[in-house]
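Handout, section B. The chain below has 78 residues.
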Amino acid sequence: MVCGRCGRKRLGNPLNLFADLEDFLHDHRAHGRLTADAMEPAWNGYLLTVACPCGVAFERWVTPEDADADLVRIARLN
């Protein structure tokens, strides 16, 4: 992922959706309104997409196991 406006490049950890999404939001929030979408969940997960006006999109296939693991990580922060 490379942003045309800020020039930052980051390869995310495929096992940590929450941290990767947080980084994307931090890097792109200043570019304007971000647009998020998630497809209807299927038996094997769903596609999460967050688009930035600069043209970069965060896309991640989220399996049920990924979602559970991230909820556990978030709960540990509290």
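Note. DSSP finds two helices and three strands in the chain. Compare this with the example in section A.
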